[in-house]
Amino acid sequence: MGRILVIDDEPGICSVLKDILEDENHQVFTAGDGYEGLALLQQERIDLVLLDVWLPRMGGIDVLKEIKETYPEIEVIIISGHANIDIAVKAVKLGAFDFLEKPLSLDKMLTLVKNALTVENLKKENKKLKNSLFMEDDMIGSSSQMQKIRELMEQSALSDARILILGDNGTGKELVARGIHRRSSRREEPFIEVNCAAIPDTLIESELFGHEKGAFTSAVSRRKGKFELADQGTLFLDEIADMSLNAQAKVLRAIQEMKFERIGGEKTISVDVRVIAATNKDIQKEIQEGNFREDLYFRLNVIPIVVPPVRERKSDIIELVDYFMQKFSDSKSEGRKRISPEGMELLKEYPWPGNIRELKNFIERINIMTDELLISAETVEFYLGEKKQLEHTGELEEYTSMKLNDAKDQFEKKLIEQKLKENGYNISKTAEILGLYPSNLHGKIKKLGIETKK
Question: What residue numbers bound the domain in which 418 lies?
């Protein structure tokens, strides 16, 4: 069964096509002109459009262009009179699936509809297959922490409750979100991810809610936002704590009402979206410092899931290493490479500040760079030694998710606290060592909330 929209200014044709297609168990919508048809596309999920090439107010070619620009996944069959056959051919070149010539042959029409819907289904299957490629990595590990996370995933998946995933960078928060989606009743629908930290504040609203053509200088066409693209599926808001307060307010309203307007638009769009959010920040601290809305936190934190760092679940490292060794093994080699027991002990003792992401990259590199089938402790130590030479980058880990000014403040606070302690909390001496006037140091101590008592 398909959801088909017929756009034709002749009520008789709309009525006949509706009756015939409904007899074939399709759900049919009709519109008398292009504007009405485009409005319906905003409101309903449509699989196929039957479009008359000759329409009042807005010509069929213009309607086709708008559909292919805004809804490229929807197939369009052009309906054309004999006199407009050249226009119909042009329409096919512009992306129409095919055209029907008036007077309509019902057999041909049904065949084209069947073929177009088959192509539509193949597109969906292809999209689903591509999504599955991103889901191939599952949560690896048998530790008690991982068992608890799996239990939470199973318990929460079949509900539509909002979930907040907490954990350091590289721990696998996205895998948890994808795993929940894959186990849910929405698994056949889209999983849409938004990295809130990677989108400038000026663009986040457009990214989430979309915009109409001409809404701002670079808005050359209408664009659907992530909320709309995730309709019936799951929206994953990664690094949610990096979103501006203004954007947080709009997300809160959208989550509460499941309604929003595109930028520059007046029409309210309703969606059915399951929201999963994640952050690597201390969310309670962000709330206390006024960087995150408490009401949004309560909306998102229906089910909290905390993903521990690798250093807190060392028993999982053997399984993780084995999984990645198999993943990155060279199919042309005589046998799969393995890490020796002594080398595995070194890997278990390494702190892995970058968590699973760092471990995955390390295993990929050692697979490429060594010819040993049983990779020795010496080889592991050598490549870990490369990392230890750059260990100072691990010290920056806590700053990587911060904005520059926040990172500067945090670093200044730690440095001043250290120097104060080293100099017995003597302000004058500490200021001299730091190259500051005592008055400036006093100002920084007050601003950064530094304790000066011995």
Answer: 402-448
